[in-house]
Amino acid sequence: MPWCEQCAKFWNPSSMTAEGACPSCGRTLERPAAAEGAPAGEPKGATPTLTGSDLRQLAGEDAKAPWHFKLMVGALAVYLTWRIVDLVMAAFR
Q1: What is the pLDDT of residue 23?
Q2: How far apart are CA 3 and CA 16, in angstroms?
Q3: What's the mean per-residue pLDDT of the chain?
Q4: Is the entire prediction scored with pTM above 0.70?
Q5: What is the DSSP code (8-state) at residue 4?
Q6: What are phi and psi of 87, to 5 degrees?
Q7: Contacts of 44 by beta carbon, 8 Å cutoff, 6+ apart
Q8: Phi and psi torsions of 77, nearest 5°
Q9: What is the pLDDT of residues 15-56, one digit of tens each?
Q10: Burial class for 19, CB neighbours closer than 10 Å (0-12, 13-18, 19+)
Q11: C-alpha to C-alpha distance for 54 and 51, rounded to whole angstroms
């Protein structure tokens, strides 16, 4: 994400001018992605689509879920199990 020193602000590429300049002060921040060249079959500025195999390749073959995600899924499973047990016990009282 481009940073403008004069404005002290991050700019989203879609909020910059077509030339890649800061909308407030006009300072050039970076070259626009569309000007760097799109593949021959795609129009400039087109968003590429990713398939499942592309995402797996980007993440790497040994990419795994982080430990804190696994911990939260485990805690959710324990909580939902307890709620079901509590519901069943309340139904038989």
Answers
A1: 82
A2: 11
A3: 78
A4: no
A5: E
A6: -65, -45
A7: 34, 35, 38
A8: -65, -45
A9: 888 888 888 888 887 765 544 454 544 555 556 666 666 666
A10: exposed
A11: 5
Tokens 């199990």 sit on residue: 81
Query: Dihedral sign, CA of 19, 20, 23, 24?
Result: negative
| Number of Cβ atoms within 10 Å of the Cβ of 11 | 20
Query: Do 56 and 36 meet the contact criterion of CB atoms below 8 Å apart?
Result: no
Cα(56)–Cα(8) distance, integer angstroms: 36
Q: Tell me which amino acid residue 88 is.
A: V
Check if the beta carbon of residue 4 is closer than 8 Å to that of residue 25.
yes
| H-state helical runs in 1-93 | 52-59, 67-91
Structure tokens given for 7: 């404005």
* CB 20 within 8 Å of CB 30: yes
Residue 60 has pLDDT above 60, yes or no: yes
